[in-house]
Write a structure and sequence with these properties.
about 0% strand; 20 helices
Length: about 400
C-alpha cells in the first residue's frame, strides 16, 4: 500500500511539474511539434496552463503569420493567385488564439478571472481575419472552403474580438454563406441549412443563401412532420414567393382543402397568377381528374403561352384521359367504331399539346421525352408515317 501511495504521489508530482513547464516544453519546437506536445499534456493541465499552451502556439506562429499576411496582401494588390497553404498560418493562429481565450477567461486556482493574453492576441490578429473571406470565396474545394470560413466564423463569435467587432462584423454573412455552400456540396444538409439561414441577414448573399436554405431543407423531407416543419419555414421566409411550392406540398400530405385555399386566395389577389393555376392543374392531375387538370393548365398557358412544361402536362392529361376512356369503353379488348372515334378525338387533342411542346422545345432542352410521348399517340391513332418520322429524328 505504501508503495502504491508513493507511486501515485510521484505521478501527481510529475504531472504538476510538466503542467507548470508546458511553455518551456514547447519552446524551440515547430508548430506541429509544439501542437503534439500540448495535445499530449492537455488532460493534466489546468485552464490557466492550457491558455499558456495555446498562447505559445500563437507565439510560435507569429512570424510566419505576419509574413503570410504581407505576402497575401501584396499578391492581392498585384492580382496574382495565392495558394491555399499560404492562408494556413493565419487560420491556425486564429484557431489557437480562440482556444487560448476560452481558457484564459476561466477562473484560476483562486477563483478569479484574470485574462493575460486577450489584448495582445486581439491586437495582432484582428486585422488579419479579412483575407480569409476572399480565399474562401475563390476556392472550389469544399473542405478548404470550410477551413477558411470556419476560422473566420469562429473568430467572429469569440469574445476575443468583441472589442474589435463592437460595431459589427461586415463580412460574417459572407463567411456563413461560404460555409453553407461547402456543407451543401458535402451533402451535410443540416449544417448547410443552418449556415444558409444565418447568411440571410447579409443583403449581398441573401438571394443565393435562400436558395441553399430551401434546397437543403428539401433533402431531409422524410416524414409528414418534416414536411410540416419545412412548410412553416417557407412561410417564414416568404409565403408569397413560395406559394406554389407550399400549396403543392400541402396537397401531397393530404391537406387538400388548405392547398386549395392558398391557390384560390392567390388567384383572387392576382387573376393572372399562372403558378397558382399550374399547381391547381398538378393537384388535379395527381388525382387523375383529367378534365379539371386540363381546365387549369389551359388557363395557365393562356397567361403564359411559352410555359413548355404545362403544355407537356396538357398532353399527358389528354392522352391519359383517352387511354382511360378506351379502357372504360372496351369489352374484352374490343371497342365499337363509335366509341373508338370518341377515344381518338381525345388523343387528337393530346397531339395538339405535344406538337406545341415540339414547337417550343425542338432540341428537347426542357422536356427530353416529348418525342416518345408524341410517337406513342401517333401510333395509337394509326398515323404510322408520323410515328416513323419521330423515330428517324431519334435515330432509331
Amino acid at each position: 500500500m505504501k508503495k502504491f501511495i508513493f507511486t501515485a504521489l510521484v505521478a501527481a508530482f510529475a504531472t504538476t511539474s510538466f503542467a507548470q513547464d508546458i511553455v518551456k516544453q514547447m519552446k524551440g519546437k515547430s508548430y506541429a511539434e509544439a501542437t503534439a506536445t500540448l495535445n499530449g499534456a492537455l488532460s493534466g493541465l489546468s485552464a490557466e496552463q492550457k491558455a499558456k499552451g495555446y498562447n505559445q502556439l500563437v507565439e510560435i506562429l507569429d512570424k510566419e503569420t505576419n509574413e503570410a499576411f504581407n505576402a497575401i496582401t501584396l499578391a492581392n494588390m498585384n492580382k496574382t493567385k495565392v495558394e491555399y497553404e499560404k492562408y494556413l498560418p493565419i487560420v491556425n493562429s486564429l484557431n489557437e488564439a480562440v482556444k487560448c481565450d476560452e481558457f484564459d477567461n476561466q477562473p484560476n486556482d483562486k477563483g478569479k478571472v484574470a485574462p493575460k493574453f486577450r489584448k495582445k492576441n486581439a491586437d495582432r490578429l484582428a486585422n488579419l481575419r479579412t483575407v480569409l473571406i476572399n480565399a474562401a470565396n475563390e476556392t472550389t474545394d469544399p473542405d478548404k472552403k470550410l477551413v477558411l470560413a470556419n476560422a473566420y466564423i469562429n473568430s467572429s463569435e469569440s469574445p476575443l474580438f468583441a472589442e474589435a467587432l463592437k460595431a459589427g462584423d461586415p463580412y460574417i454573412g459572407y463567411a456563413q454563406f461560404f460555409a453553407a455552400a461547402a456543407y451543401y456540396n458535402k451533402e451535410d444538409w443540416n449544417k448547410a441549412a443552418n449556415y444558409a439561414e444565418k447568411a440571410l441577414k447579409c443583403d449581398d448573399v441573401k438571394e443565393n443563401a435562400e436558395q441553399y436554405l430551401v434546397s437543403a431543407l428539401t433533402k431531409n423531407l422524410k416524414t409528414k412532420s418534416d414536411t410540416i416543419a419545412y412548410l412553416k419555414k417557407l412561410n417564414e421566409i416568404n409565403a408569397e414567393k413560395y406559394m406554389a411550392q407550399i400549396a403543392s406540398l400541402y396537397n401531397q400530405i393530404g391537406e387538400k382543402q388548405l392547398s386549395d385555399k392558398i391557390l384560390n386566395d392567390a388567384i383572387a389577389a392576382n387573376p393572372n397568377n399562372k403558378m397558382a393555376y399550374a399547381i391547381k392543374g398538378e393537384n388535379a392531375m395527381n388525382d387523375r381528374n383529367w378534365d379539371e387538370a386540363i381546365k387549369n393548365f389551359k388557363k395557365t398557358v393562356e397567361i403564359d403561352p411559352a410555359f413548355t412544361a404545362v403544355w407537356f402536362n396538357l398532353g399527358v392529361c389528354a392522352s391519359s384521359k383517352g387511354f382511360d376512356l378506351n379502357e372504360k369503353l372496351s369489352n374484352n379488348g374490343k371497342i365499337s367504331v363509335e366509341d373508338d372515334a370518341k377515344v381518338k378525338e381525345v388523343l387528337k387533342e393530346a397531339v395538339v399539346y405535344y406538337e406545341k411542346v415540339r414547337q417550343l422545345d425542338p432540341n428537347r432542352e426542357t422536356i427530353s421525352n416529348w418525342p416518345y410521348q408524341l410517337r406513342m399517340i401517333y401510333n395509337a391513332l394509326g398515323e404510322t408515317e408520323k410515328a416513323a418520322e419521330i423515330s428517324k429524328m431519334l435515330g432509331e
